[in-house]
What we know:
Helices cover 8% and strands 60% of the residues. It is mostly beta strands. The chain has a single domain, classed as Jelly Rolls, CATH 2.60.120.
Amino acid sequence: MSLPLDAATVLQALELELEHEPVDAEQVVDGSPTTGIAALTELDDWEVGVWEITPGTVTDVEVDEIFIVLRGHATLQRGDGSEVELVAGSVGRLDDGEETTWVVHDTLRKIYIA
C-alpha cells in the first residue's frame, strides 16, 4: 500500500516552516533545544509527519516509530548503551517505551511514521 503523498508534498517537508516550542525542562540535559512538528497525513492508525529539533541534548521515552532523517546530525543513545549517528538519509526505528537520549549537533529534521 502506498502513502498518499506526492512529490510536491515530500519536497515541502524539507522546507515546511515549523512552529518551535522549548523542550520540557525535565527532558533537557544540555542547551536550550526547541522542537517543531507537523502532521502530514494519516494512514489507518499511523501518522506521517515532520519533526525537527535544534541543537542540545534531551531525553525521551519513545513511541513505536519509523523515521527517515532529512537533514542535520545527531547521536541517538539508547537505553541499552548503544549509539548511532544520524545524518541525512539515516533510517531508524524506535520502540514504544524505549528510553533515549538525543545529542543534537546540527538541527535535525526527520519524517516519522508513528
